[in-house]
Amino acid sequence: QQPVQSPQAVILREGEDAVINCSSSKALYSVHWYRQKHGEAPVFLMILLKGGEQKGHEKISASFNEKKQQSSLYLTASQLSYSGTYFCGTVAAAGNKLTFGGGTRVLVKP
Amino acid sequence: DTEVTQTPKHLVMGMTNKKSLKCEQHMGHRAMYWYKQKAKKPPELMFVYSYEKLSINESVPSRFSPECPNSSLLNLHLHALQPEDSALYLCASSQVVSEDTGELFFGEGSRLTVL
User: Fold this and answer.
1) Which residue among B4, B41, B98 places its CB closest to the CB of A95?
2) Could you tell me if A3 lies within 8 Å of chain B, comparing CB atoms?
């Protein structure tokens, strides 16, 4: 079942922060985050395994709350290069397939 | 070399044509994937090859036929497609033979238009 991402879109000024949420109705084994710029391939950002860990990639970090079955991606002090569509992907159990959420379009303006 | 290369980048075909999409990676990855992506939608898994054997087929119509000739190459043969099959077809590879913990490396995709 596809995870639900919110918001669907966000517009930021350079330097502003944003949070993207990813929720699942099922228990989760891992959460994956990818960013896809227009006309380009999705690019891996990070994987979070169950255990409530938090990870970071440049000024982009994420948390995983397995009890709430959700993950959040934090864009801190956003840069123009952060623009793109962010997809979370969830895995329900070890060995299961990755299912992507509907995506969150982020536009960072100067 | 951390690239996944897909050819062609663009393809236009009629419903009676036979064509193929190609994907190549030289990272030594043993899992390769085909995804389909419609505009403003997430990638949808079609097929997974693990150690050159088909391990997952997500109930894809038989007009799509995958092939993995060796560990570096992945093909998607297309025949008698429908206009609704028009989409971006993404190839990906991963070092681990499972999607649950592995990073996927995506190619830039082949944009297919079926007339």
Assistant:
1) B98
2) no
Q: Give the pLDDT confidence score for residue A58 in this predicted structure.
A: 73
**C-beta neighbour count of A84 within 10 angstroms:** 20
Q: Among all chains, which residue has been given the structure tokens 């891996």?
A: A44
Residue B101 has pLDDT above 80, yes or no: no
What is the arithmetic mean of pLDDT over B79-99?
A: 90
Q: Please give the radius of gyration of chain B, using alpha carbons only, rounded to the nearest integer.
A: 13
Contact with chain B for residue A84, Cβ under 8 A? no
For A41, the closest of B44, B48, B109 (CB atoms) is B109
Share of chain B above pLDDT 70, in %: 95
Chain B contacts to A (CB-CB under 8 A): 4, 40-45, 48, 56, 58, 90, 98-101, 103-109
pLDDT (0 to 100) of residue A29:
87
Taking residue B45's Cβ as centre, other Cβ atoms within 10 Å add up to: 20
CA distance A2 to chain B (A): 10
Q: Are the beta carbons of A41 and B107 separated by less than 8 Å?
A: yes
DSSP string, A56-101: EETTEEEEEETTTTEEEEEE-S--GGG-EEEEEEEESSTTPPPEE-
Whole-angstrom distance, CA of residue A89 vs CA of residue B6:
23
What is the average pLDDT value for chain B, to the nearest integer?
92
Q: Greater confidence, A29 or B43? A: B43
Are B11 and B21 within 8 A, CB to CB?
A: yes
State whether B43 and A87 contact (CB < 8 Å): yes
